[in-house]
Every structure is written in structure tokens, then in C-alpha cells.
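Protein folding task:
====================
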Amino acid sequence: MSNNVSRRQFAKIAGLSAAGIAGPLDAEAKPTSTQRSASNFPPGFLWGTATSSYQVEGAVNEDGRGVSIWDNFVRIPGKIEDGSSGERANEHYHRYKDDIARIKELGCKAYRFSVAWPRVFPDGDGKSNPKGLDFYNRLVDELLKNGIEPWLTLYHWDLPQSLQDRFGGWRSTETCKIFGDYAAYVAKHLTDRVRNVFTLNESGRFVYFGYGIGIDAPGLTLPQAEVNQVRHNSALAHGLAVQAVRAHGRRGTRVGPAENIDACIPAIDTPEHVRAAAIALREMNAGYLNVIMEGRYTDAFLKFAGADAPKYTDAELKIISSPVDFLGLNIYAPQHYIVPSDQGAGFAPLPIPKSFPHMNSDWLRVGPETIYWVPKLAAKIWKTDAIYISENGASGADQVTPDGKIYDTDRIMYLRNYLAQLQRATAEGVPVRGYFLWSLMDNFEWVYGLNKRFGLYHVNFDTQVRTPKLSADFYRNVIANNAAGA
């Protein structure tokens, strides 16, 4: 795959563009009444790190795990940049105790991981696999033993292949219903110790890349109407999972989405630009996050989609909008800089110059203000009082020097500037309650294979030796001081 293709490129929802979108939203930025000191994050701010099952676990053929769509997709020639796979990955399935010790070394109080659906239900439904569940029981127990709070993600893209074969995967509401049953099972067995559950990770990525342009598993290129229907189904699956966790989980278990929000930033910090960015943020996320939070598709979305709009019922919208306890936002790069416009929409996205600075991935543009504006606007638009940055981090060149060290000052630069902007947001009362750094360690980075490294720990994938990078020391210092640092 070309590096010109974004890892977290967002679906242009039904082909939404500035022209033709309209929606009233008064979201001018105003100072909050609960100002905090800008020198630190709020007391009790949750610091964590994250991984996902297929990217780190390996052991894909062990202990009764079924086949996922990614197990098959990686075998297609040319799909993975370096020809690697998650078959071995980080061997986290066997090395989880050592990896948890590294989380503890960082001072993290939380760890976000995902359950591999085919490890628990090899065929997606039917008979469960006790050995698969037992791994997550051991993982959760080890985290708690080390004073680390487990944050569980139900779906991070490893759909059981059986569901893809039988129902077309997320093309069918049958998969949504089965996902609800799977969520109920996981909640019943793990929420006696797991207090926080994310539903689906990055619908904006796996729907468009997997079903729209064929870059991710299952590798389909469907017409726009079907892509929109798949996206609707993923929102329905989210809602069914929320209901399942409520019904079968321990009372008080919290649940919410983790989405790669289509990040819209005011080009200039003026009331007019801020209001335009708020309208854009709502409309550019109308096909997933907004329908979850508001229980309806915006008029602009339906108008622009026209005949390609998803088919749905009022009952489905009610399920989709089941109340959530928090909003998880995966924030990496600015997607659109927004200016006001007198043409219909009230906003217009600007083209991104070729000279825009980026990290060791072309898509990962460096725009620290993204992590300030997006939570600030999201909290106002969707009236949420609990936002978590469920992912943020940076790829780097990460060369091992002759002394065996990795001096990743580029990653430290990125993190320092983003965290300073996040600190600015919390000081103004924006309700960001925690931050999960992606990633604990280098891992299988989907279509890039093992070529793109996001970890605080360098991994030699031949020997599986983990080596802390300089950024691990930086993050440890951030956590210890509850501040971004100079």
C-alpha cells in the first residue's frame, strides 16, 4: 500500500463536502466557569496506554481461536506493505505478564486492550471457547494485581471469518445481533472486574477502508449506498452492545464508543471560525458519532446522501442512541482546517498544503491544536461531561544507536506539543478525563505491517526483545508530574 494512503483517513460520509451541507448549530467558544490551573492536568486524570488484540497477541492458531478476516486478508499478496502478519506479532498472548510489568514501570494506571472475538467465539456465535475467555481472565487479573485498571474494547477489527462468510460481515444486521450476544457474554464474565468498556473501535476506518476502498479486511469495494448501510449497521451494533453491557454487566459498568472522529479545526481562533468548525465537526461526523449521540441523521446528511442514504427504522435509531457514559476519541492529526462560508453549509474545509509537517507517516500531520479543539467542540455539540482520548501517538523512524538506545526525540516533540494543548483544554474546563497513548509497544500496524512503529517500547520482532525508548522516560515523567512538561 502506498504511504500516501492515511492509516486513519476518514470516510467522507456519503461524499459529504462543504457545499450542500447545512445545519444550525450555535457553538461559539466561550470561557467556561470552571477554570483550572494550566500548569497541571486535573487531579485524578487517568493516564494509560493501549494495544489491540490482532496487533499484539499472536498465537492465532492456539487454544481454539477461530479465524478472523485479518488472518485471511494478510495472506493476499500485496495487501500488507512488508508482507508480514499478526500471526506472531508481539507474542503478547504468552508474554502478557512481562508487558504488564512495563505498563507498571511507566506509572500508567490504565490499560486499554481489545478482546479477540474469534478467540472467545471461534465462529462468532454458537459455542464459546473457554480457553479464549480464560486468557482475558488472566490478563485482567494480572492488571489488577499490578494496580492497573483494565479498559476493554469489544471490537478492534478482528471479525470472525465465519460471520463474513455467512452474512457478509457488517453488511448484515445478523452480524449486529450476534455482536450484541458476544458483548453480553463478555460483559457477564469480565465486568465483575472490568469497569469500563469501549464498543467498536474506529467505525470510520474499518467501514470505509474495509468495505469501501478495499484497503483493509475484508477488502471489499462496495457502492456508496452499501458503504453507508454498513456504517449504519456498525452504529446499530454499537447500540446493541451498549444495551447488552447494561443488561448483563455488573451494575455501574460504564460503556461508550471509541471513534476516529473526523477532526475539524478552526483555521483562526475567532468566533466566526470556531462556529464554522463546530458545524463542520457535527456534519462531517453525521454518519456515525452524531447519530449515536443525537439519535437521528442530520437533514444535511440525508439530503446529500439522497438515494444512497442508509435504510433504517425508528426502532434502530432508538437502539443506536442508547445513552453512553463517555465518549472515546482517537485523535492523531487535523483532518480539516475550517473557515466560514456564506455558501449553504456555513463552513468550508481548506486544502492541506503539501509542505504541512508530518511524522514518519505521510497521513500523520502534526497539528497539536487538534487535541484542544476537537474535545472542546465535541463536548459542546454533544453535551457530554466525560471524554477520553482513547488513542493518540506518533510513528517514528526509531533507529537503534550503537549503544542500544532509541532516542526518539521526534515522538517526544509530538507528544509534548499535543499534551500541552490537551492540558490547555482541561485547564479551561473541557471534560477530558483521561488519555491512552498509542501504543505501549511497536506492533503489527495493519496495512503497513511492521514498518511503522508507534510504541514507547521498541520491539525486535525476531527476538521479541522490548527496549524502552526515550519517549518512555518522557511519558513516565508526564504521568509522575500530571503535567505535559516543558
About this structure: Confidence is low (pLDDT under 50) at residues 1-36. Residues 13-481 form a domain with the TIM Barrel fold (CATH 3.20.20.80).
